[in-house]
């Protein structure tokens, strides 16, 4: 089973690298799907809308092994940036998972984005030629990965945008646990 997962993951990573590398070179915006290492059927998958920021693409031929934005020791980006005062998105997550048992779940969580490009908002991609198509392609890749390859036990969607892009219907006031009101 583990070997099948590794093969499916590698094939998926190669397909993402080919499609996204070509688009990234056109628009000079970096991309990566993951902010953690990937393990099969994790207890928790955390999905955000996109990586945010506006990092320039360094015009290299992106390989499938470079589709991760993790800490130096392989820890997920939330933990790697725990003491980084500029990285504010991780603070509510770290607070939610502060007890020892929950911290262990966070440490082994797979963290990814629905759309992989470093723009302030997903919608910012639409200003580029083929932007709408690349958003759709990322959504297809993400759905395939979540439902056919990773098969997580639980999924935590961050913010309003991630469920919207995943086409999951919910009311952010009635259906969320944490509210920013």
Can you summarize this structure?
By secondary structure, the protein is mostly helical. 39% of the residues lie in helices and 6% in strands.
Structure notes:
- By secondary structure, the protein is mainly α.
- Helix content is 39%, strand content 6%.
- It has 6 helices and 3 strands; from the N terminus they run αβαααβαβα.
- The protein has helices at 2-27, 77-80, 90-96, 100-108, 131-150, 161-165, and strands at 45-48, 110-113, 155-157.
- A 3-stranded parallel beta sheet has the order 2-1-3.
- Helix 1 runs antiparallel to helix 5 (131-150).
- The longest helix has 26 residues, at 2-27.
- The protein is globular.
- The relative contact order is 0.21.
Layout of SSEs?
Elements (H helix, E strand, L loop, with lengths): L1 H26 L17 E4 L28 H4 L9 H7 L3 H9 L1 E4 L17 H20 L4 E3 L3 H5 L16
Parallel strand pairs: 1-2, 1-3
Helix pairs in contact: 1-5
Oligomer: single chain
Q: Determine Rg (CA atoms, Å).
A: 16 Å
Question: What number is the mean pLDDT?
Answer: 82
Number of strands: 3
Largest sheet: 3 strands, parallel
Cα(first) to Cα(last) distance is 44 Å
Spell out the helices and strands N to C. Answer: HEHHHEHEH
Structural class: mainly alpha
Q: How much of the polypeptide forms β-strand, as a percent range?
A: 5-15%
Spatial strand order of the main sheet: 2-1-3
Q: Total number of helical segments?
A: 6
Low-confidence stretches: none
| Proportion of residues in helical segments | 25-40%
């Amino acid at each position: 089973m583990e070997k099948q997962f590794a093969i499916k993951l590698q094939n998926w990573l190669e397909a993402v690298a080919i499609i996204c590398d070509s688009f990234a070179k056109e628009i000079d915006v970096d991309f990566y799907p993951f902010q953690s290492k990937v393990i099969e059927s994790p207890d928790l998958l955390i999905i955000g809308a996109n990586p945010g920021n506006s990092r320039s693409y360094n015009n290299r031929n992106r390989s499938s092994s470079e589709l991760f934005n993790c800490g130096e020791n392989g820890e997920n980006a939330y933990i790697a940036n725990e003491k980084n005062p500029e990285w504010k998105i991780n603070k509510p997550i770290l607070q939610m998972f502060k007890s020892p048992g929950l911290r262990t779940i966070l440490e082994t969580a797979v963290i990814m984005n629905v759309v992989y490009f470093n723009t302030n908002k997903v919608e910012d991609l639409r200003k580029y030629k083929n932007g709408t198509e690349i958003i759709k392609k990322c959504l297809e890749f993400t759905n395939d990965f979540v439902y056919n390859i990773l098969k997580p036990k639980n999924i935590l969607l961050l913010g309003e945008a991630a469920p919207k892009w995943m086409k999951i219907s919910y009311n952010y006031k009635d259906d969320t646990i944490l509210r920013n009101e």
